[in-house]
Fold:
Amino acid sequence: MPRVYLDNNATTAVDRLVLEEMQPFFLERFGNPSSIHAYGQEARRAVEEARERVASLISCEPPEIVFTSGGTEADNAAVIGAARALGGRGRHIVTCMAEHPAVLRACEFLETQGYEVSYLQPGTDGAISPEAVLTAVRDDTILVSLMAANNETGVLGPIAEVGPKLKERGIVVHTDAVQAIGKVPVHVEDWQVDLLSLSAHKFHGPKGVGALYVRRGTPLAPLLLGGGQERGLRGGTLNTPGIVGLGKAAELAGRYLPEMEGRVRSLRDGLEEGLISRIVDTQRNGHPENRLPHVMNLSFSGVHGEALTISLDLQGVAVSTGAACHSGSVAPSHVLVAMGLPADRVQGALRISLSRLTTPKEIDTALAVIPGVVHRLREAAGVRFF
Ligand code: PLP
Structure:
């Protein structure tokens, strides 16, 4: 049975070129980049080259990149670190109800530490209006954290519109760009953000490594205290092979951006239109245009997303009900709930996410398999659609 992987928002396959660049740093070039001997120096050179590649992808200066263990750590370091550094100036933070748990849980932690957080509600299309953000900020607002693109719906955030205005007011702006990197252009100057999170495994790099962009001069208290690595912003021996992989993945992400916006977008559109036309009572969740090019979120009435995901897996098609981080739990998607969608639509939601490695043949297979499985589940539940 051919297997089809359409869950690229959960994670992506490591590109072979990425793996090839990483391999020597596990074997003969295993030095600690903080050591002063030749082993250390060659590891340091590789780390600094990776830093340049990541900086080039988002158009910042290499010293503004701090390597982390992934998106979760970058989000925690940004939100908690900025709040701690700025706590003397004010204690109000603005974010959104549909953020990733890495931001939401960090905000909830800050609430226990005497900070106040405003959680903006997205519209039924998943979008947040720039006006809502600008209305929510106050004189004591120190931080606004809004994702560049949502991991469940792909809907883009208003960061480009609000970033420059918030900067004028001296508010630190963080964006979780974990899902946006490699899918749409991301330039920190265009958005005027101060902090930006990214994670290698979402764009064909290795798991367990990411980065936080920290604009020069941004107040930030470190989350991990230790040996003073990363200019004192993140203690811990650097994960050289992972960082090298992140660097190569960043270079490739820039190179393949036109392909994501062209070929992958048309594959996504073809699959989405095919499913909507073949399966009656199917609804798209999220704004139809203002979203990433590789992901769709659909609800099939009368079908439970969890049951559908399991049935599709038995047919070799890997998709998701929403955030992979929540799989294993049957809790409804907090993103779709925040959008105010009715319970049956939330329950029936399926996230399908492509990558630049997705082939037209895989799309044909998905299109051949998914409608039959939905119909069978509907029949089993005694639901009739005409
Ligand atoms: N932020 C978003 C939007 C994500 O989609 C994810 C991963 O699902 C994360 C943060 C966490 O990243 P990581 O898996 O590297 O910790």
Remarks:
- The first helix runs from residue 16 to 22.
- The two ends are 32 Å apart (CA to CA).
- The mean pLDDT is 96.
- The chain has two domains: 4-12+257-380, 16-255.
